Amino acid sequence: MFGMGFSEILIIAVIAILFLGPDKLPSAMVEIAKFFRNAKRTISDVKDTLEHEMHVSEIKEEALAYKKELLNTKESIKKSTDISHIGASLTNLNDDILGDDLAVEEKKEQTQKVTFEKKKKGEDKNV
């Protein structure tokens, strides 16, 4: 209690008995106990009043909400910049790049061949 050991408390009690006497000591102890109880209650009331005036609980709730929002944003940024995640999404694409090239080649084959050679008479025009 208050950083004092048993020997210090015993010395204070002996001094109190010598100064106050055995008849006034119990009433003095009761008064000291009342003083500490009132001091503790007053400190508690001041603390509660300050918290109420400063809206500490509301500020704590807002801070926790902001913290949660920041953590969610951090996770979404981490997911969007994760290379393995991007690679996985690229492999799941439905576009067949090679298939597009094959379709272009087939169209080229279907078109007529244009040459600048002089055609001989009697040759078929669709070569």
Q: Which helices and strands, and how do they pair?
A:
Elements (H helix, E strand, L loop, with lengths): L5 H49 L1 H26 L1 H9 L5 H14 L17
3D architecture notes:
The chain is mainly α and 127 residues long. The protein has two domains: 7-54; 55-111, no CATH class. It is built from four helices and no strands. The protein has helices spanning 6-54, 56-81, 83-91, 97-110. The longest helix has 49 residues, at 6-54.
Question: Beta-strand level of the residues, as a percent range?
Answer: under 5%
The major β-sheet equals: none
Strand runs, count: 0
Uncertain ranges: none
**Tell me, what's the shape?**
rod-shaped
Round the mean pLDDT to the nearest integer and report it.
77
Query: What is the overall number of helices?
Result: 4
Domain count, please report it: 2
Query: Roughly how many Å apart are the termini?
Result: 112 Å
Q: Helix and strand succession?
A: HHHH
